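queue> holo job accepted (adenosine monophosphate)
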Amino acid sequence: MKILVPVKRVIDYNVKPRVKADGSGVDLANVKMSMNPFDEIAVEEALRIKEAGKAEEVIAVSVGPAKATETLRTALAMGADRAILVQVDDGVEVEPLAVAKILKAIADEEQPGIVMLGKQAISDDSNQTGQMLAALMDRPQGTFANTVEVEGDSVTVKREIDGGLETVKLTLPAIVTTDLRLNEPRYASLPNIMKAKSKPLDTKSPADFGVDIAPRLKTLKVSEPPVRQAGIKVADVDELVAKIKALGIA
Amino acid sequence: MKTLVWVEHNNAHVKDATLSAVTAAGKLGEVHLLVAGSGCRAVAEEAAKIAGVGKVHLADNAAYEHSLPENVAPLVTQLMADHDAFVAPATTTGKNIAPRVAAMLDVMQLSDILSVEGDKTFTRPIYAGNAIATVESSDAKLVITVRGTAFDKADAEGGSAAIEDVSGPADAGTSSFVGQELAKSERPELTSAKVIVSGGRALKDAETFQEYIMPLADKLGAGVGASRAAVDAGYVPNDYQVGQTGKIVAPEVYIAIGISGAIQHLAGMKDSKTIIAINKDEDAPIFQVADLGLVADLFKAVPELTEKL
Ligand SMILES: Cc1cc2nc3c(=O)[nH]c(=O)nc-3n(C[C@H](O)[C@H](O)[C@H](O)COP(=O)(O)OP(=O)(O)OC[C@H]3O[C@@H](n4cnc5c(N)ncnc54)[C@H](O)[C@@H]3O)c2cc1C
Ligand SMILES: Nc1ncnc2c1ncn2[C@@H]1O[C@H](COP(=O)(O)O)[C@@H](O)[C@H]1O
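queue> job finished
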């Protein structure tokens, strides 16, 4: 079985995003970019399934600018076997629906048993791509995975839901999206980073898969959220008690 | 415009998250509801009473009992032949189903909307709420998830919509429900609590969290939340997590104890009316958003606070 792992290059999660003064978007110039944290978890989970002898090959794929090669090299350094870059021009944002269509085309070629995605990209916060891919492939989905267990021709996914946890069993091939507590992703060792440089990386374009990436949503403007002003510091617990009582909750 | 709203329920009662979605849908036009489940006529009857609802579609089928997206997305897609927009609350159920519907309809979903600006224009948070995008859809039909804290709740009473039985596709046969572990708690649910007391990594372990956070929460009749660090370390179950990837809350009062205030945590609570922070580090970022800050060791301050309240 092959596992396909889509990874997105996004602003590093430690960076505080700044809205551009002209309201056209978020300033990404000279900002540290990294692999979407949920996708690192997806790569890790795919590798663990392979290491447990339940998959033969882990293929990382990214839809993004030439620089997304770095993200794919990170996946290869972690242990993925090969990578596919579906390259678009710098500054072009491909929406989840179009990404899902590209992934569907790749899945048709590669026939993976599992496509393991992150649950959400921390840039657009869409939380859509995996579910959309599952619809396009007409296959089952296990979203927000907390635990993943592959057995024979099925995968059992324990999902993080609002009230706690839910377990579903899916017939392979299936789509899984990762939540934060699924695992702790490994760091790539220096030798593995060196090795990753010679692993195969194919470059394609959306047109190769016949996918139109024209956006369906038009961003009219991007603005700062209302800013909260820092309030006051109270001197001690007594002052805090008085203030809380004044709020009328105690 | 005719909208179809996903009713979130447990096959017995309508869940509150539905009511904010109804309000959002009402801004687009005529509101129809979909109750999909098993043995759930009582839910449809309850839903029919929600103010402002035109019609309730009831799809009662064992295949829909657990809202498996493989089974309910085709049902919704079928009903979308007669509707212009599908609106779901941005709960884990809504987020699971709506994008699947969107792809089946070949439209881009609008996730987690904060406001309705026009027929096709909405605002939504991006980058963990550090930016708000105003976006316009060019698709023929809309698929939307709604952030509960951004819309008032529709009145649960006052309506008298007709209930119409609908049948949809059968079990897709590719997925099955195995079980659930639902946290049972006497406390108010996080997303509707008026007061929330949240604890962070500083609480050390599950026992300490219980010992210091719970009595204060009891005193205030508050819901209990936590940072990701506290959840990851096993102090409390995952459904306590507040933040970008946990629950989005906006209570009257949010009390953050031993939480540093990472942007991912702030994303989930910075719309709270009053924020109170207790942290021993006076430079902790949480103080930049707190209305009331106390720089103190929580192990001294919290018991004293609980006692004096
Ligand atoms: C993709 C992604 C998504 C994430 N999503 C979320 C999310 O949804 N929610 C979330 O919360 N986090 C999330 N995080 C994690 C987030 O970045 C932080 O790591 C986390 O919020 C830190 O939790 P904390 O504040 O409890 O711990 P810390 O940052 O370790 O802070 C502990 C605080 O306690 C204070 N303290 C210590 N001892 C005492 C004492 N005795 N008395 C008083 N104060 C004390 C310290 O001064 C410190 O400020 C996410 C991270 C990533 C990468
Ligand atoms: N451009 C992309 N390239 C590769 N994978 C992507 C891309 N966009 C989204 N994904 C995958 O889909 C997941 C969810 O993204 P989103 O739906 O944008 O929140 C991510 O965690 C990735 O696994």
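queue> Chain A has six helices and 13 strands.
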